[in-house]
UniProtKB/TrEMBL annotation:
Keywords: Membrane, Transmembrane, Transmembrane helix. GO terms for cellular component: membrane. It is a multi-pass membrane protein. Pfam families: Sulfate_transp. It comes from the Bacteria. One of its GO terms (biological process) is transmembrane transport. This is Sulfate permease, SulP family. The keyword Ribosomal protein does not apply. Residues 24-400 form the SLC26A/SulP transporter domain. The chain crosses the membrane at residues 28-47, 53-70, 125-145, 183-201, 208-227, 268-287, 307-329, 350-379, 399-430. The keyword Transmembrane applies.
Length: 534
């Protein structure tokens, strides 16, 4: 495939032009960061899902290369999602085999593609900004809390867990307390050195071209080898553990195929629909959050993203992988590392493939504590103090949904927490909309009062309660003019209230005049709103 410039095109990028651009200098280092972050997360989520470790890596590879190519987002990164681990684990047990689960994943992928084609992604436009900001800050706090045990060498919980209640029967806070009682000082030293490198290496101009995360990994491997025969040596479980493939036949044997004979099983379809809906919601939330922290402020096409994610899940199901979504942890690491285009995502998928095929033994020397340091820095950037100050200055109607979302996500999980935040956010939106449906003015003619109620340009059903209360509380014996000259649209429910009030007002000695209030209003089109403001 070629693009308009005559060069080969991948996902809308002209490769010839790309490799000559300055974006390459940013995308390659950021792809290394995302690769290092994604590697333990892919393995940890596969382990927690009751799936083969290879399935997690395969999903990360497909998410990087396939979804990265098809997606319209420049910075979002797809891969296995922690939010789906419980669904996957339950499905494998309920359906009786991993192959039956893969069939449900294939169907889920098709459903997601259909969601995209019918424009279901537009629901992302209705996520309140304060809730998305709260979700980002909550993910940052979760990264700090969840990575602390790995940073000090206590690895009871799997990498990538975002839920408050953990699979090891602890929770986020008790997990930290347990880690403090079982500190490995070798891991602590590696973490502290890694954090120092992340903070100060980029400030040294002569070596800044070498990515700090790469130096973190090299120093972590070096220190772990230095500690090997001492009292602070790392344990085997404190390293990355990637499957080692010794031959082509062994590699091909890792792939699994769906059991298409189970397609008549009702539970297969229930699982497929559950995965499709949950994966789509997580994707849209992550996409919205990723766009919010994009320094260039690009807007990703949500419907195209659902089609891309659906294609990824379809291929993942056919080859033996796990469900994937756009993942905010990897995406935010990508943004913070300075990525500029989707090539960072695609290259990270290629690096995962290279790691699996060519250098698994080298990868297995990487301590989890140095990778935890990278995620700790990412978490700090997402939950920075300045963000809380910024939201406070926006007012309580923004700050309260923001804080509620943070607390709810940290104490439950991503979808439940965001759902709670959405309810609070929508409450404040309704409250704001109910405040300004009209302008209220009182004129006096001797002892006689004339009250003029001038309706707003848009009067929706959300304003119904406010107008109802105002009309019923008008004093007896007054003249009332309800002025609709400024209104392009008045909801039918509001019109009914106005006409009913006019009909019954004489019982209170109130004389009502309607000024340019029509019997019916059509909903204004987008073209009318843009070109006919009056």
């Amino acid at each position: 495939m070629q693009n308009e410039h005559g060069g080969p095109a991948i996902g809308g990028l002209n490769l010839r032009k790309y490799f000559l651009s300055k974006n390459l200098k940013k995308d390659i280092p950021s792809s290394i960061v995302v690769f290092l972050v994604a590697l333990p997360l892919c393995l940890g989520i596969a382990l927690a899902s009751g799936a083969p470790l290879f399935a997690g890596l395969l999903t990360g590879i497909i998410g990087g290369i396939v979804v990265g190519t098809l997606s319209g987002s420049q910075l979002s990164v797809a891969g296995p999602a922690a939010g789906l681990t419980v669904i996957v684990l339950t499905a494998i047990t309920t359906l009786g085999s991993y192959e039956a689960f893969l069939l449900s994943l294939v169907i889920a992928g098709v459903l997601q593609m259909i969601f995209g084609l019918i424009k279901a992604g537009t629901i992302a436009n209705y996520f309140p900004s304060s809730v998305i900001e709260g979700m980002l800050a909550a993910i940052g706090i979760i990264l700090i809390l969840k990575q602390f045990p790995h940073a000090v060498g206590y690895d009871a919980d799997y990498e990538g867990d975002e839920r408050f209640s953990q699979a090891d029967e602890s929770n986020t806070f008790s997990g930290i307390l347990g880690a403090l009682a079982k500190i490995n000082y070798g891991a602590v030293i590696i973490t502290m050195v890694s954090i120092g490198l992340m903070l100060y290496w980029p400030k040294i101009k002569k070596v800044a071209a070498i990515p700090a995360p790469l130096m973190v990994v090299l120093s972590g491997i070096g220190l772990s080898l230095l500690f090997a025969n001492s009292g602070i040596a790392l344990l085997e479980k404190q390293y990355v553990h990637i499957p080692v493939v010794n031959s082509t036949a062994e590699f091909m044997g890792l792939f699994k195929s769906p059991n298409f004979s189970a397609i008549g099983n009702k539970q297969i379809w229930i699982t497929a629909f559950t995965i499709a809906v949950v994966a789509s919601l997580e994707t849209l939330l992550s996409l919205e959050a990723c766009d919010k922290i994009d320094p260039i402020k690009r807007i990703s096409p949500t419907n195209r993203e659902l089609v891309a994610q659906g294609a990824g899940n379809l291929i993942s199901g056919l080859l033996g992988g796990l469900p994937m979504t756009a993942v905010i942890v990897r995406s935010s690491a990508n943004v913070n590392a300075g990525a500029r285009t989707k090539m960072s995502t695609i290259i990270h998928g290629c690096l995962l493939l290279v790691a699996l095929l060519l250098i698994p033994t080298v990868i297995n020397y990487i301590p989890l504590s140095c990778l935890a340091a990278i995620l700790l820095i990412t978490g700090y950037k997402l939950a920075r103090i300045s963000l809380f100050k910024h939201m406070w200055h926006k007012g309580l109607d923004q700050f309260i949904p923001f804080v509620v979302t943070i607390v709810a996500v940290v104490l439950t999980d991503l979808l439940i927490g965001v759902g709670i935040g959405m309810l609070v956010g929508v409450f404040y939106i309704l409250r704001t909309n109910m405040r300004n449906p009209y302008f209220y003015h009182i004129d006096k003619n001797g002892d006689k009062k004339t009250i003029r109620i001038k309706l707003a340009e848009e009067v929706s059903f959300l304003n119904k309660a406010a107008i109802q209360i105002t009309l019923t509380s008008l004093p007896k014996g007054t003249d009332v003019i309800i002025d609709g000259s400024n209104s392009r649209y008045i909801d039918q429910d509001v019109l009914e209230i106005i006409h009913n009030f006019k009909h019954n007002a004489y019982t209170k000695g109130i004389i009502v005049q309607l000024h340019e209030v029509r019997e019916k209003y059509d909903v204004p089109s987008l073209k009318q709103l843009m070109y006919n403001p009056n």
